[in-house]
Amino acid sequence: xxxxxxxxxxxxxxxxxxxxxxxxxxxxxxxxxxxxxxxxxxxxx
Length: 45
Description:
The protein is of the alpha+beta class.
């Protein structure tokens, strides 16, 4: 399963876009690795 499928299934929140690149919070990735769903909060502007 790809990262984008994880996002579609709600297992990983949408990435933060910076200069056209996608980034995820380290805590969200670690939560996914531990079998928990990540935060669904938005990044602060």
